[in-house]
Amino acid sequence: MALQLPDGFRWPSGFLWGAATAAAQIEGAAHEDGKTDSIWDAFARVPGAVAGGDTPEVAIDHYHRMPEDLALLTELGLDAYRFSVSWSRVRPDDAAPNPAGLDFYSRMVDELLARGVRPFLTLYHWDLPQAVEERGGWTLRETAERFAEYAMLVHDRLGDRVEDWTTLNEPFCSTYIAYAGGEHAPGRTEPAAALAALHHQLLGHGLATRALREAGAARIGISLNLTNAVPADPDDPADLDAARRIDALWNRGFLEPVLRGAYPEDFLADVRGLGLEEVLHEGDLATIAAPIDFLGVNHYHDDQVSGRPLPAGTPASRRPTDRPGRSPFVGSEHVTFPPRDLPRTAMDWEVHPEGLKHLLTRLTGDYPELPPMYITENGSAYLDEPDEHGVVHDAERIAYLERHLEAVAGALADGADVRGYFAWTLLDNFEWAWGYAERFGLVRVDPETLERTVKDSGRHFAAIAAAARL
Ligand code: FCB
Questions:
Q1: Is the CB of 302 under 6 A from ligand 1?
Q2: pLDDT of residue 326
């Protein structure tokens, strides 16, 4: 089935079709050529932390198969590739630079450019050096400065060839879920630590943005995972307040410091007394608001929220963020997430493509200062298996992709400035706390042999991109 696009719609010229990955999810070689533990290596060794006891030690062995994997981008005819650099590979323990690690990314960038694929580099996709965590991790102000130094180390080596730089990926996850919810590395469950991590990651973003700008980086951005917090009953004040709180904590609490240099007033009130005041220094917000050139939007699903307990009999959710007793929702731990009657992916995430259009339109309307946007992640996990010929007919992933691309087109037609779409993800990989059980790839990776096979969705995405360029 073809995309249903608005009447007369054309994808803007230069719209980028890409795929995204992250270092810890694909590289493996976790202790090779000088690399030392990241917090994900250490966290995965904690019994029960990752489903099935899986670890990123080997992941999908991308470190040794990088040229072969990048050839897939050419096979799919993609314009751009979003990848992340592992801090502990290029600066193990955040100590001396590691030439072998820097060489790996340098070869990768050369390989991409030789293929005519534009590199989009993410500096932090959740894999802090474990040695930094042992000193206090993101709860320390100093870590923001260390991050900016690491950013410059990477820029010194790759800045002659990489033009698109992203500081942080989804700081919501690497602060609240990591330091308060306990589901992501480093697995802490301390609300004050999460707020300190929030402020220091944003400060690190600002410091790195400034330093990269001075060093001549062409374009700098940040990728935020944004949601639509939908009140379960739009006439119930408790649900409306819950929706406001989640919107503040999850969306505006990142957008407004970065775009406007201020935390939202209601968010500050919701978390008052929990420690943010102590770490916020004069001048920090001006640093955090260093101008950016693009906003990366990651979106998978909306969230229906309520201020009331879940009705008896609500099926237990698989979502880590819903586990009893451990909440990433600092200051709003009472908020609940009643499921809506919508189809769900294998992650138990609802499928509601209109949400993506709504989000992009809302960002455009609410933030006149918004820079151009890229969808830096969107995709779906399904438990697809190959048929007897080794072919994966992942019709559900194709449908998810098509409906979400229609949503992007709808937002473009309504005036949103979206410059590209990166599918999550190129290859099946280590899906954090879910281990290898959850698979989002356009390309299948055989769990035993690690052999790569393009899925039907990969071919379909390639065809959509090719048609869009005509
Ligand atoms: C996002 C992460 C990405 C991947 C997808 C499914 O939150 O940025 O690494 O795990 O979810």
A1: no
A2: 85
Residue 132 near residue 43 (C-beta atoms within 8 A): no
Which residues fall within 8 angstroms of residue 189, CB to CB, at 6 or more apart? Answer: 180, 181, 182, 326
How far is it, in rounded angstroms, from Cα 299 to Cα 334?
24
Q: Where are the domains of the chain?
A: 16-469
pLDDT of residue 220: 99
CATH topology of domain 16-469: TIM Barrel (3.20.20)
Q: Binning pLDDT at 50, 70 and 90, where does residue 50 land?
A: very high
Q: Is the shortest distance between the CB of 225 and ligand 1 below 6 Å?
A: yes
> 361-406 pLDDT, tens per residue?
999 999 999 999 999 999 999 999 999 998 999 999 999 999 999 9
**Entry pTM:** 0.98
Q: Considering 170, 183, 256, 438, which one is annotated as catalytic?
A: 170
Atom of ligand 1 nearest to the CA of 431: 10
Which tokens sit at 221? 């951005």
Using alpha carbons, list the distances in angstroms from residue 378 to 19, 144, 381, 426, 443: 10, 28, 11, 11, 15
What is the structure's pLDDT at 2? Answer: 82
The DSSP H or E segment spanning 121 is strand 118-124
170 assigned to active site: yes
Within 8 A by CB and 6+ apart from 301, the residues are: 227, 349, 350, 351, 352, 355
Give yes or no for residue 428 CB within 6 A of ligand 1.
no
Question: How far apart are the CA of 21 and the centre of ligand 1, in A?
Answer: 9
Q: Give yes or no for residue 270 CB within 6 A of ligand 1.
A: no
Q: How far apart are CA 424 and CA 376, in angstroms?
A: 8
Query: Each residue of 220-270: pLDDT tens digit?
Result: 999 999 999 999 999 999 999 999 999 999 999 999 999 999 999 999 999
- From 298, 348, 438, mutation site for ligand 1 pocket: most ligand atoms within 8 A of C-beta: 298
- Paired with 294 in beta bridges are 221
Is the minimum distance from the CB of 422 to ligand 1 under 6 angstroms?
no
Cβ distance 231 to 306 under 8 Å? yes
Measure 63 CA to ligand 1 centroid, in angstroms. Answer: 20
Whether 1 shows a pLDDT value over 90: the answer reads no
Nearest to 264 by CA among 279, 282, 284, 250: 250
Residue 316 has pLDDT above 80, yes or no: no
